[in-house]
Amino acid sequence: MTTVAAYAAPAAKAPLERTTIERRTVGEFDVLIDIKFAGICHSDIHQAREGWGKAIFPMVPGHEIAGVVAEVGPGVTRFAVGDRVGVGCMVDSCRECANCKAGLEQYCDQRPVWTYNGVGKDGEPTYGGYSQKIVVDENFVVRIPDGLSLDVAAPLLCAGITTYSPLRHWNTGPGKKVAVVGFGGLGHMGVKIAHALGAEVTVLSQSLRKKDDGLKLGADHYYATSDPATFEQLAGTFDLILNTVSAPIDFAAFLSLLRTDGAMVNVGVPEEPVEILLSSVMGNRRTLSSSSIGGIRETQEMLDFCAGHGLGAEIELIRADQINEAYERVLASDVRYRFVIDTSTI
Ligand code: NAP
Ligand code: ZN
Ligand code: ZN
């Protein structure tokens, strides 16, 4: 076991504070990673505040991890000391069910082992990236291509894959009109990736406050959802709507923006149930769906795609003692566009 410095929420809704945790001894197929940067995902806040239901405390959040391999177990074949690597939302899965075999570990029949707020196969709670080191089985580690700096790559491990996967699944490309709802951590990556895939991209944000950034980062159009004229103007427009909002929205209003056979895919995970009249889905044979992160192979594919297109996240680098303040700013939609912790400050 190795003792490692970390930032943890001691209890639900309590501020995060510096602490230490134990990392397991490097096993045969394990990789020890010196974590350099960890992104702050809104999911960290939902969980640290028990917004999604009962959670495990103390909690060390963080599933957007970028670092450098410091040690490998004797059976490790894919990584060597010094490699630049990432870890996302999962650190293990059953590896045997049809979903795992298909590279869809996020939909593992036994549920994946989440990077934090989970229980590992050893029965111990898992602790995430707001820490200086992590030990992960090599099958759940991905390679960060040379062209990507580790700080801007970290958020790709969740925000990147969570938007890339549904954009690819719903065939985003030239000739397709895609709307991204919410221009935060996931939203800004959704815009960059959809643009790089060749789609015509529209941002639907609460206000026009971030319009200049949106257009600069790849959006063709940018509308305020606080303006009712937006919904009149864009009725029946989109092939795909990617909803990244962390709170419930007016589904009927957004569904009315889909063209025939269009799909609205929800990646935001509000803490409250949402209300939808099915008649608002039926018109124009619409699809209402959702998507959870992406598998390990697809995460590597996304990193290679982002490196190939020069796409990293737009980040605000913070010290560990700014985490609690950063949480408040994320909750106030005041983030441009991902807070990333410099883990050397833990
Ligand atoms: P974020 O950075 O806070 O972005 C969410 C954006 O939604 C905000 O920037 C804001 O954009 C908009 N928004 C916030 N509150 C709103 C409200 N009440 N009404 C309308 N719009 C609102 O969060 P994130 O890290 O991108 O995560 C977004 C959601 O996705 C969270 O619920 C998170 O848990 C979830 N998530 C899901 C997965 C998955 O696998 N499905 C993976 C990661 C995260 P504007 O200012 O532009 O309006
Ligand atoms: Zn996340
Ligand atoms: Zn499985």
Secondary-structure map with pairings?
Layout: E1 2-8, E2 17-23, E3 30-39, H1 42-48, E4 65-72, E5 84-87, E6 90-92, H2 98-101, E7 113-114, E8 133-137, E9 142-143, H3 150-153, H4 159-169, E10 177-181, H5 185-196, E11 200-205, H6 211-216, E12 221-224, H7 228-233, E13 238-243, H8 251-255, E14 258-266, H9 279-282, E15 287-290, H10 296-308, E16 315-318, H11 323-331, E17 338-342
Parallel strand pairs: 10-11, 10-13, 11-12, 13-14, 14-15, 16-17
Antiparallel strand pairs: 1-2, 3-4, 3-8, 3-17, 4-5, 5-9, 6-7
Helix pairs in contact: 4-5, 4-10
This protein binds NADP nicotinamide-adenine-dinucleotide phosphate (NAP) and zinc ion (2 copies).
Can you give a write-up of this model?
The protein is of the alpha/beta class and 346 residues long. It has helices spanning 42-48, 98-101, 150-153, 159-169, 185-196, 211-216, 228-233, 251-255, 279-282, 296-308, 323-331; strands at residues 2-8, 17-23, 30-39, 65-72, 84-87, 90-92, 113-114, 133-137, 142-143, 177-181, 200-205, 221-224, 238-243, 258-266, 287-290, 315-318, 338-342. The protein has 2 domains: 2-158 and 313-345, Quinone Oxidoreductase, Chain A, domain 1, CATH 3.90.180.10; 160-290, 3-Layer(aba) Sandwich (Rossmann fold), CATH 3.40.50. It contains 11 helices and 17 strands. Strands 3, 4, 5, 8, 9, 16 and 17 form a 7-stranded mixed sheet that branches. The protein has a 6-stranded parallel sheet with strand order 12-11-10-13-14-15. Strands 1-2 form a two-stranded antiparallel ribbon. Helix 4 (159-169) packs across helix 5 and helix 4 (159-169) packs across helix 10. It is globular. The mean pLDDT is 98. The structure holds NADP nicotinamide-adenine-dinucleotide phosphate and zinc ion (2 copies).
